[in-house]
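Case study 2.
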Amino acid sequence: MMRDYLTIDDINLKGKTILCRLDLNSPMDPKGIILDDSRFRSHLTTLRELEDSKVVILSHQSRPGKSDFTTMEPHSRLLSRLMRKHVDYIDDIFGSHAINSIRRIGNGDILLLENTRFYSEESLERTPKEHTRTHMEYTCLQGEVWRGGGSDRCRRQDRQGQLRGRYSGHPGLSDRPDAR
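Prediction:
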């Protein structure tokens, strides 16, 4: 069957920087403890298949104004435990700390960037073209391959996913019709 997109089996990912948009948004108690790790577990197979790559995870936790709107630090600790390897939490999304951390990672390393919803433009309702013209493009330019989508059932188009079409000339970047 002919597909109009690529999977991780279609590309040699060894040594490549992979930007992964994962849905790690989970219920948390008032002390910041993640109460349900099922979303984390749903991504373990993919992350393990990327063991020879440089993995950068983009995700969010809750929404501004909610009690569980917090950093991704607890998420990196839980993911480290589940992966049985260190997942480095970076308290930045697109600034120099994030960009330099992405540039320094080695094969097998995993970085989890800060909550993308800390970046106010993440939640704005705009056209896909307007979303490509944000600070987030600096982060997206650091990747060689984009693994988009958060879960099997996305409630809205992924904002960073809209950047894929703009940079489809990058090696290994899928040029799916929905990403244009």
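Residues 150-180 have pLDDT under 50 and may be disordered.
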